[in-house]
Amino acid sequence: MSDSDNDNNIKCLRCGTEMVEAYFLTYMCSQPIVQRTRKGVLSAPVQSGTKCMVCQNCGYIELRATEPHKLKFRTE
Ligand SMILES: [Zn+2]
Known about the structure:
Bound molecules: zinc ion
Number of helices: 0
Strand content: 25-35%
Order of helices and strands: EEEE
Structural class: mainly beta
């Protein structure tokens, strides 16, 4: 987690309060992932884990891909 320090000052988009990291658990108690797929047999899906930032003031929740670079297809 090389860039975790960069996430320490994320401000809430709604009220500007500093957000904190939290777990966003599904019914199966696993964190969700984001995935992109493309048509074509040679295109494997690309995906990244996510992390959740929550505002302790207004409750705004933001999901962020932990590895956004992995969401690019090789040809993009
Ligand atoms: Zn807020």
